[in-house]
Amino acid sequence: MELTAKSIAEFLNGKVEGDQEVVVNDVSKIEEGKPGSLTFLANPKYSKYIYTTSASIVIVNDSFVAEKIINSTLIRVEDAYRAFAALLEMYNKNTKKLKGIDPQTHIDKSVVIDESVYVGPFAYIGENARIGKNVQIHPQVFVGDNAEVGDNTILFPGVKVFNNCIVGKDCIIHGGTIIGSDGFGFAPKNQKDYKKVPQIGNVVIEDNVEIGSNSSIDRATMGSTIIRTGVKMDNLVQIAHNVEIGEHTVMASQVGIAGSTKIGKNCMIGGQVGIVNHLTIADEVKIAAQSGVGSSIYEKGAIIQGSPAFNIKEYQKSLVIFKNLPRIQKEIHETSRLVKDFQVLKEDI
Amino acid sequence: MELTAKSIAEFLNGKVEGDQEVVVNDVSKIEEGKPGSLTFLANPKYSKYIYTTSASIVIVNDSFVAEKIINSTLIRVEDAYRAFAALLEMYNKNTKKLKGIDPQTHIDKSVVIDESVYVGPFAYIGENARIGKNVQIHPQVFVGDNAEVGDNTILFPGVKVFNNCIVGKDCIIHGGTIIGSDGFGFAPKNQKDYKKVPQIGNVVIEDNVEIGSNSSIDRATMGSTIIRTGVKMDNLVQIAHNVEIGEHTVMASQVGIAGSTKIGKNCMIGGQVGIVNHLTIADEVKIAAQSGVGSSIYEKGAIIQGSPAFNIKEYQKSLVIFKNLPRIQKEIHETSRLVKDFQVLKEDI
Amino acid sequence: MELTAKSIAEFLNGKVEGDQEVVVNDVSKIEEGKPGSLTFLANPKYSKYIYTTSASIVIVNDSFVAEKIINSTLIRVEDAYRAFAALLEMYNKNTKKLKGIDPQTHIDKSVVIDESVYVGPFAYIGENARIGKNVQIHPQVFVGDNAEVGDNTILFPGVKVFNNCIVGKDCIIHGGTIIGSDGFGFAPKNQKDYKKVPQIGNVVIEDNVEIGSNSSIDRATMGSTIIRTGVKMDNLVQIAHNVEIGEHTVMASQVGIAGSTKIGKNCMIGGQVGIVNHLTIADEVKIAAQSGVGSSIYEKGAIIQGSPAFNIKEYQKSLVIFKNLPRIQKEIHETSRLVKDFQVLKEDI
Known about the structure:
3 copies of one chain form a homotrimer.
Chain A: E1 3-4, H1 5-12, E2 15-17, E3 23-24, E4 26-27, E5 37-41, E6 57-61, E7 73-77, H2 80-92, E8 100-101, E9 106-107, E10 118-119, E11 124-125, E12 130-131, E13 136-137, E14 142-143, E15 148-149, E16 154-155, E17 160-161, E18 166-167, E19 172-173, E20 178-181, E21 186-188, E22 194-196, E23 202-205, E24 210-211, E25 216-218, E26 224-227, E27 232-233, E28 238-239, E29 244-245, E30 250-251, E31 256-257, E32 262-263, E33 268-269, E34 274-275, E35 280-281, E36 286-287, E37 292-293, E38 303-306, E39 309-311, H3 312-323, H4 325-348
Parallel strand pairs in A: 4-5, 5-6, 6-7, 8-10, 9-11, 10-13, 11-14, 12-15, 13-16, 14-17, 15-18, 16-19, 17-20, 18-23, 19-24, 20-25, 23-26, 24-27, 25-28, 26-29, 27-30, 28-31, 29-32, 30-33, 31-34, 32-35, 33-36, 34-37, 36-38
Antiparallel strand pairs in A: 1-3, 2-7, 21-22, 38-39
C-alpha cells in the first residue's frame, strides 16, 4: 500500500502542509518515525517529537501550533487520533478473511451455520446454539447449549460462552475470556459450612461490545447479568452475577464489580478499581484507577478517587496533607509545647 | 414445573400467609417479579420492593414484619435465602445429564474411566491420571500425568489440572482455571540475572471446594499447596506456591495470596485483597476488600482493613480524619499563628 | 535417587558438618522434614526449625551460626537457596521427555517442525509460523499465523500466541496466558460512543523470559509491546499495548501496566501494583505491593510505596501518623481549646 499525502488528506478530509506528493508505505510511532512512514500527534506529551521525527507525514489536530521548524509533511484534521484510527482500519482490511468450518470441530447437529461463518479447529458448539452471519469462532472456543452469538461477532481463541448466554452483534471477545460461569453464591449451611446457591440465570451482552482477554463475566443467580450496547472492557476484568453495565461505559483492566451492582451509561472506570455489591453508580461517573467504591454514587458525572473513594478534589487535598503529615505532626507538637509553656506563664500571672 | 404455595411451604417446612393455592412456574428477582413467579426477600435493602412486586409468592424470614399491605402470598421460613437456594437446586436438577466419552479426546491408555464419567471433546487426560465416578470433564480440559480427580467433581471447559495435582470429591472448578502451574521461584544467579528454582511439589484440593473462573493456583516448590475442605474461591484469584487455605474459608474475586502463607479456617477475604508471603492468618479472620496484609494476624476472629491493614474500627476512625485533613490543617495553622502572637505578647511581658 | 551428604557437598562445592555418609532420597520443607529427606535454611524466619527438624541433611549458608544443638547433618554453602535450587534442578531432570507431533493437531502445511519438537493434542499452529528446536507446544495451545517461537521454549496447555507475535529462546509461558490480544484503544466517535482503533503491532518477547499463568500481554497499536531478556512475571499480570519491560525485571502477580509505559532494567514490582500509562520507570526501581504509580520515576534504584506511590521511607512515616490520627486530632483540639482560653486571658490583659 503506497499513499501520497494528497490522497490521505482527501480520504481524511484534511489539509496538507508541505509536500503533497510525498509517499508512505508504513505506519510508525512519532518518536520512532522513519522516512516513508506515516504517524500522528494527538497527545501533547509527544509534541516535542514532531520537531525531530523522520516520519514523512504527521497527522495533527487543526489546533496544533508549531513552535519550531518541522521537516515532515503535515496533514491537519479535526481529530488526529480518530483520523489515524480510520486509516489504520483501512490498512487493517488487508488481513486475510477467515471462512469455513474446520473438520476437527464439535458442532451439535441441531446447529445451523451460515456459509459466511468461520469455525476453527477444536471449537465446540453445543445443542441449539444460534450462530449469526459472518461470525468468527476461533480455535478452541466453547459455545454452550442454547447460547447465542450475533452477526459479525468474533470469539477469539479459547473464549468460552456457557449455556444459555447471549452475545450480541458486532462484538469482539478476546482470548481466554469466560462468559457465564456460575456466580459466587453460597448460603451458610451451618455455623461453619456453605451450601451452593444454584445459578440459573444467564449473561446478556448487547451489540458492539468489546471485552479483553482472560476476563470473567458470571451468569446471574436468576435473571441476567447485562452488558449494554457499546461497553468496552479491558483484560482480566471481573463482573459478578446480576451486575448491569450501562451503555458505552469503558473499563480499564483488572477492574472488579461485585454482585448486583448497576453501573450507569458512559462511565469511565480506571484500572484495578473495585466496586462492592448492590450499589448504583450514576451515568457519566469517572472513577480513578485503584479506587474502591463502597457506597452508591447518585450524582451524574461525579469524579471520585480513593479507597474508599470520594470526590477527587477533596481526596487530592487530603492526599497532599497525608504526604506532609510528618511536618504537620512536628508543628502540632511544637505548638502544644509552646502552649504548655504559656500555661506555666499563665499560672505565674 | 408448576407449584402451589402450599406445596412449596411443605417442601421448605414453612408457613403460608395468603392464597395457599396460587401457582408459580418461574423464579424472579423481587424488583422484577411478575405474576406466576416466585421470589424471596433476605437482604433488608430490598424490603421496599415487597410492597410493589408482582411476584405471586415471596419467601421471607420468620422475623420479617410488614409495614404496609403486601399483595403477594408470603411463605415464612427460618432463613429465606437458604430456602430459596434449596428450591433453585430442585429447579436446577432438570438440567441434562452429561455422560459418555467423546471420540475426539486424548485419554492415555493407562487411564481407567468409569461409565458414569463425562469426557467432552478436545479434553486431554495424561498417563496414570485417576478419574473418580460421576466426574464431568468438560470440553478442552487438561488433566496431566498422575493427576487425580475425585468422585462427582466437575471441571468446566478450559480448566487445566497439571501433572501430579489432586482435586478431591464434589469439587467444582470453573472455566479457564489453572491448577498446578509452577510457583514463582527464582534465585539470583548473579547481580543482574535469575535462575529458575524447579517447582517439584503439587497442589492438593480437598473435598467440596469451589474455585471460580480464570484463577491460578501454583504448585508447591516442594510439598503441596493445599486448599482445604469446603473452601470457596471466586474468579481471578491468585494462590502462590506452598500456600495453605483452611477449611471453609471464603475468598472474593481477584484476591492474591503470596508464597507459603497459611490462612486459617472460616476466614472471609474481600475482593482484591493482597496478602504477602510467609504469613499466618488465624481462624475466622475477616479482611475488608482491597486491604493489603503485611504481617501475620494471630487473633482469632480479628476484623481488619486498610493497606497495610489493621483493626477495622481504628482504620475507619483514621479514615474519617483523613477525609477531614484539610479542615484540621487549617485549625493547626490558626492555632500556631495565635500561639506565635502570644509569644510576642510574652516577650512584651 | 539416593545421595550421601558427601556426594551432595561435592556437587555443591560445600562443606559437611556431621555424618558424611547419611543418605537422603527425598526433599522436604524444613518445618516438615522427615528422616531420609534433604532440606535447606535460607530465610532467617525459619531458623528456629533447624533445631527441631527431622530432615537428615540441611543445606545452610556459610554465615549461619547455630545457637543450639542440631541433630541433622549440615552442608555449608555460599548461598543455601541457590544451592538447593541447583539440586532440585538435577532432581527434576528425571521428568519424562515430551516429543513428537500428536495426530490430533492442526498444523498449517507451510510450517516446518523439527523432530525435536513436541506438539500435543488439540494444539493449533497457523500459516508460516516458525517453531524452533526442542520447543514444547503443549495440548490446546494456539500459535497464530506468522508467529515465532524460539528454541527450547515451552508453551504450557492453553497458551495462545497470536498472529505475528514473537517469543524468544528458552522462554516458559504458563497455562492460559494470552500473548498478543488487541490493545485497548478506542477513539471517541461522537459524544457518547467509541470507535475501535485497529491494533496492528505485535508482541516481542526476548530470551529467557518466564510468564505466569492466565496473564494478558496486549499487542502494540503499532510497533511492538516488548518484554526484554530475562524478565520474570508471575500469574494474572496485565501488560497493555506498547509497554516495554526492561531486562531482568521481576513482577509479582496481578500487576497491571497501562499503555506505552516503559519500565527499566532489574526493577522489582510487588503484587497488585498498578502503573498508569505513558510513564518512564528508571532501572532498579523497587515498588512495594499494591502501590499505584501515577508519575514517572527517574531516579535509578528508587524505592516507592503507596497509592499514589512516593519514597517508601516518607510513605511509612506518614502511614504511622495516619494510624495515630485519632490521638493527634485530640491533641490539636486540646491545644486549640487552651489557646482560646489564652485569648480570653490576653483580652483581659
